[in-house]
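Model it.
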Amino acid sequence: MATNDKIASVYAHALLELAQKQGGNARAQEVGEEFREFAEVITSDKSLRALLASPTVERSARSAALERILRGNVSDILLRFIMVVDRKGRLGHLVEMEAAYDELLQGLFGKTEVDVFTVDGQPLDKSIEASLRERLRSATGHEAVFHYAADATMIGGIKLRIEDQLVDGSVATRLRRLRESIIQGGGATIRGNTGRFIG
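Modeled.
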């Protein structure tokens, strides 16, 4: 797990605990929806991203602007969380924190987030998706929630990222494994039949 992911995970766990103390899993889900909406605003609003990430904005000015923007627009729990993140100098990680929080929520409700990479990022055929969903349910005990993304480096097949584990079923990886198998197998065959080649 990357350092940024670890940081995001620590903060996400803290927020989840606070939300659950305030109102159980129902409150945790409400906070999650609110946090997701805020993360979407960050992703789509250039000026807000600049305010959050810019090292040239003085921290006290940023804190005041954030509080002015958020107070009355988000719940107290999310406001307090964001202000703590600001004081710790971690505002640039808010989107990753939201993703980590969402992952925790999915686990809480028996779901697993699965990133599915294909060449074009389009959803799989329904029958293939259903089969994959069933296999993942058997393997993890959770319902899979698919998120599709394009990976232009692939030549075919799929790659799955389940939490921090990558399952690579791409054509390039299968060809590489086949090549390695042929080289290793061929080497053993040659060693086993040395006499035929030098006799």
